[in-house]
Specification:
heterodimer, A: seven-stranded mixed sheet, three-stranded antiparallel sheet, 12 strands, globular, B: seven-stranded mixed sheet, 12% strand
């Protein structure tokens, strides 16, 4: 067993060896620029790009013409939100709706739109992390141009009611964007049924390579965008720049595998997650964050009360886990997602995200359970707060003296 | 398998085996997200840091001046739009021979209230001194002049141009994607002369597609093009493309090591090629001007460029009839138009761009194939008359 054990598949996944194998020829003999129209190096690369486009489209039941390659989900989110909001501002209005638990790639982009004169509503979620449809409906105004709601939350793994939200948006004429970076290969996505106008994808969360993503742009009814990167007019003008063939091929293969293996994989991963949950639940004073049913199979987010977050991270160094989302864990701010679920700062700090994946073994889960039992016990033995809790003192009523 | 001879290195280059070897561990076994705090993440962060140092060292910049992006197009868009967003709309001057990923963002900025002025070039494709002086009188807030042109290979004297623009108080950017590995590139020297930002791309210099950089003077403030998470000192958000960035680092280091020797060899092959072309009666664009050692852009009278490259492809030679990015575009090259080349001649343009792997034997083979092909096509033209 290799230590530390990787339980951070929501931050990034290994490239599946089958994906890497498909990519390598495009780093070697098939190195052509897909935009080269005058020789076979270009045609071979272009054919590979188009095959991958079909594979990505197939996973989400879309038309390949609706898939625009980008450098990743962050770029897709920027392109979708800025591109659509700017394009439709004059006709629809300048109000955007999003949710407090979105990824920074959405929140920072919406903040940027606010600086440019748009208004934004950041919706609260319920304690289980899910969006209330009535709250969403009530937030829609006549000038609402766009709503952006993530499919699956990166920290707590809850699945938002995208089908219902799509119906509401379509009825009200609001452009609906969904960040699905955490959803591919985890949740069935059928864009022929979902009333979603724009959807962001990432390869490296689904066993593909980093540096490649896509944006789904609906053709019927047609959604238009203002491009964010201008140049040679690649991707039908939506996104200029030389296409990174090997990365695109990798995303195609990764999504093909996801489609083929998803049902079986989610069962296997779900069993491991449930085992982990069961193994950790008999530790006293632990709290699962986020709804357990409307949730992807591979995510478990637990708060360990009366354990100091940083000490916890140090104590479980043999587990590669996340104590917040990967993108914000450089700072020591409590997770804004857990805050939005109503967790206080202390509990947010002492929470751990476990995300299980394709290469996780039962042995690794057993190791993790055992380690956490030992370390949480040890940390609590050192904690005066834990003693007080055990003595039955309600800590929220304690008046702390300043030193 | 039959592999044609590749003579289109300005479109993209094969990945150097040493670069591939550096990248492969990051596609096979190592995979952390550089933002993760555990060992997998820290190992990825160290790899990014090392690549940043390699790229910086290759172009004599400081590692903190390197902003990684997904490609040269993104770097150019980031500079132009990012700078325009923090400055009051004013005059934006770009050379008339820039790549579309400079010209199109400029056109976009024009719609947002910027005054866009194209700087004329002379018949040799060099910035026209008189027109440039005239542009500078307008005190441009932003300037962009490429170091070397992708079609003609013409090299601009960016240092002198930037120095002349100093008094305008504007920010000067140069797209140097075609220069890396073919010319010495020294950002510090350029920066001292008044260049504020420079675009580099990995896949034009033996590295992978999907990684590039904007080298940026830290006194220059830009608004990011892509928000969300604050990666790259807030200038470019999104999970770093670790394998490609590692490959970029390795490629940049190799390019810098080889820049004393490789261009000399390329220059010899180029001379051989151009002797052959002259003997066949080709017109070489910017023939007497300082060009990249690997780029030759030429035309034969009355022979369509598209037709010629098609025939050459069937003969086993991969060349381009224009810039790769606009190859779908049947319009004659905007670069040649700016140089005053008549459209009927420009339509014949064919670009040969050599790489580290090409040999003298391949040049001989190419010239022979060209002689046969041109002979046939001219025969057809003669019959048609």
């Amino acid at each position: 067993m290799k230590l530390p054990i990787y339980l951070d598949y929501s931050a990034t996944t290994p490239v599946d060896p089958r994906v890497a194998e498909k990519m390598i020829p495009y780093l070697c003999e098939h190195f052509g620029n897909p935009a080269s129209r005058s020789h076979s190096f270009g045609w071979v690369a272009d054919a590979a790009v188009e095959e991958a486009r079909e594979q990505v489209a197939a996973l989400v039941n879309a038309d390949p013409k609706e898939i625009v390659w980008t450098s990743g989900a962050t770029e897709s989110n920027n392109l979708a939100i800025k591109g659509a909001a700017n394009f439709y501002a004059a006709t629809k209005g300048k109000h955007i709706i999003t949710v407090k638990t979105e990824h920074k790639a959405v929140l920072d982009t919406v903040r940027e739109m606010e600086r440019q004169g748009f208004e934004a509503t950041y919706l609260d979620v319920k304690e289980d992390g899910l969006l209330d449809l009535e709250v969403f409906k009530a937030a829609i105004r006549p000038d609402t141009v766009l709503a952006s709601v993530m499919f699956v939350n990166n920290e707590v793994g809850v699945i938002q009611p995208i089908a219902e939200l799509g119906e509401i948006c379509r009825e009200k004429g609001v452009i609906f964007h969904v960040d699905a970076a955490q959803a591919t290969g985890k949740v069935e996505i059928d864009l022929s049924k979902l009333k979603v106008d724009l959807m962001s994808f990432s390869a490296h969360k689904t066993y593909g390579p980093k540096g490649i993503g896509a944006l789904y742009v609906r053709r019927k009814p047609r959604v238009r965008l203002e491009a964010q990167m201008h140049g040679g007019g690649h991707e039908r003008g939506f996104r200029s720049g030389t296409l990174a063939t090997h990365q695109i091929v990798g995303m195609g293969e990764a999504f093909r595998l996801a489609k083929e293996e998803m049902a079986e994989e989610n069962l296997r991963v779900g069993k491991l997650r449930d085992k982990l949950l069961k193994g950790l639940q008999d530790i006293e004073a632990t709290y699962v964050n986020g709804d357990l049913t409307q949730r992807v199979a591979h995510n478990l987010n637990i708060s360990f009360a009366y354990v100091e977050g940083e000490s916890m991270i140090m104590a479980i160094k043999d587990l590669a886990v996340s104590s917040g989302s990967a993108c914000t864990s450089a700072s020591l701010e409590p997770s804004y997602v857990l805050r939005a679920l109503g967790r206080d700062d202390e509990l947010a700090h002492s929470s751990i995200r476990f995300s299980i994946g394709r290469f996780t073994t039962e042995e690794e889960i057993d190791f993790a359970i055992d380690l956490l039992h030992k370390k949480v016990g040890k940390l609590r033995d050192l904690s005066p707060l834990w003693d007080m809790y055990k003595e039955g003192i309600d800590l929220s009523t304690v008046q702390w003296a300043a030193h | 398998m039959f592999q044609p001879i590749y003579l289109d290195h300005n479109a993209t280059t094969p990945i150097d085996p040493a670069v591939l070897a550096a990248m492969l561990p990051w596609l096979q076994g190592q995979y952390g997200n550089p933002s993760s705090r555990h060992e997998y993440g820290r190992e990825a962060r160290r790899a990014i840091d090392q690549a940043r140092q390699q790229v910086a060292a290759a172009v004599n910049a400081h590692p903190t001046e390197i902003v990684f992006t997904s490609g040269g197009s993104e770097s150019n868009n980031l500079f132009l739009k990012g700078a325009a967003a923090v400055r009051k709309p004013g005059l934006l001057a770009v050379s008339a021979v820039e790549h579309p990923c400079v010209l199109k963002p400029a056109a976009q900025l024009q719609r947002q209230g910027w005054q866009v002025r194209q700087i004329a070039v002379d018949g040799g494709g060099r910035i026209d001194a008189g027109d440039y002086a005239d542009v500078l009188l307008g005190k441009p807030a932003l300037l962009s002049v490429m170091t070397a042109n992708n079609e003609t290979g013409v090299v601009q004297d960016v240092r002198v141009l930037a120095d002349a623009a100093r008094s305008s108080g504007g920010w000067f950017h140069t797209d140097a994607v075609q220069a890396l590995g073919k010319l010495p590139v020294d950002f510090r020297q350029l920066n001292v002369a008044g260049v504020h930002a420079m675009t580099l791309s990995a896949h034009k210099a033996g590295g992978p597609k999907g990684a590039a950089a904007l080298v940026l003077d830290k006194r220059v403030e830009l608004q990011p093009l892509i928000a969300g998470g604050g990666h790259e000192r807030g200038l470019r958000s999104g999970t770093e493309n670790v394998p490609a960035i590692v490959g970029f680092g390795a490629a940049a280091e190799l390019a810098a090591q080889r820049v004393a020797e490789l261009p000399v060899r390329m220059r010899m092959l180029q001379a051989k090629l151009e002797n052959g072309l002259n003997a066949l009666g080709a017109r070489i664009f910017a023939a007497d001007v300082l060009r990249l050692p690997n780029t030759t852009y030429f035309a034969f009278a009355d022979i369509d460029g598209e037709t010629l490259v098609g025939k050459l492809d069937r003969a086993g030679f991969a060349v381009a009839s224009g810039a790769a990015c606009s190859s779908a575009n049947p319009e004659p090259s905007h670069v040649l138009k700016a140089m005053g080349v008549a459209p009927e001649i420009a339509r014949g343009a064919v670009r040969v761009s050599l790489g580290a792997g090409n040999t003298a034997v391949e040049i001989d083979q190419f010239i022979n194939a060209l002689r046969v092909t041109v002979g046939r096509l001219q025969g057809l033209t003669a019959l048609a008359v």
